[in-house]
Amino acid sequence: MARYIGPKSRISRRFGEAIFGPDKVLSKKNYAPGQHGNNRRKKSSEYGLMLAEKQKAKYTYGVLERQFRNLFEKAAKKSGVTGEILLQLLESRLDNVVFRLGIAPTRAAARQLVSHKHIVVDGQVVNIPSYSVQPGQVISVREKAKSLEVIDASLSGFNHSKYPWIEWDENIKGGKFLHMPERADIPENIKEQMIVELYSK
Q1: Contacts of 13 (CB under 8 A, 6+ apart)
Q2: Any idea where the domains of the chain sit in the sequence?
Q3: Number of separate helices (H) and strands (E) present in the chain
Q4: Whole-angstrom Cα distance, residue 46 to residue 44?
Q5: Is the Cα dihedral 57, 68, 177, 110 positive or negative?
Q6: Residues 52-99: pLDDT tens digits?
Q7: Which residues of 71-103 are buried (b: 16+ CB within 10 A; e: fewer)?
Q8: Residue 126 has pLDDT above 60, yes or no
Q9: Of all helices (H) and strands (E), which one includes residue 124?
């Protein structure tokens, strides 16, 4: 399956949450999309709820099924709480870190900046959105891209103290990935334990 590029409001309405950021359509139509969306009964089975939680996580971080399963298997091999480690692995993706730094307004925009070679890691260009950022690495905007309008607009008024695991440096238009985030510091409304239970079936 290819990455979803359709209407984001449709996905947000399916989950009843603005998973891609502020959504004007969702605020007006807070029910499932489609002709019978307002009358449709929500899935209530245990499996349906777990599957929906996995789908929500995939759409939130823009990850395909195979990538998501690989991350889960990697998380399961590590010592600790598997669900929390899975979220940490998702948070440490380069496209997500660029988004968290405020360099891009959305994860999709961050993915595009990375793919177009506008982002450097420790001074080296990295154009792989799924690149796993390690603690201590510095992520910044490439010199020739610092004047891009989309980056300036995104950084304007952005609160860089939102995420304690990232340290912003205005001089380089970038920041250091200090450490893996604690679960309490990750703002996404994802019930990761349900995802673990789904893959454990």
Answers
A1: 25, 26, 29, 30, 31, 32, 33, 37
A2: 8-89+188-200, 93-179
A3: 9, 5
A4: 6
A5: negative
A6: 999 999 999 999 999 999 999 999 999 999 999 999 999 999 999 999
A7: bbeebeeeeeebbbbbbbbbbbbbbbbbbbbbb
A8: yes
A9: strand 124-125
Element (H, E) at 177: strand 174-177
Q: Note the residue count of the chain.
A: 201
Q: For residue range 40-50, list pLDDT tens digits in order.
A: 555 568 998 99
Whole-prediction pTM: 0.83
CATH superfamily of 8-89+188-200: Ribosomal protein S4/S9, N-terminal domain (1.10.1050.10)
Distances (CA, A) of 80 to 10, 51, 90, 144: 35, 23, 16, 41
The correct answer on CATH 3.10.290.10 for the domain covering 93-179 is: yes
**Unique residue bearing structure tokens 């971080």:** 61
- Report how far residue 187's alpha carbon sits from residue 90's, in angstroms, rounded to the nearest whole number: 13
pLDDT at residue number 33: 53
Token pair belonging to 128 = 């792989």
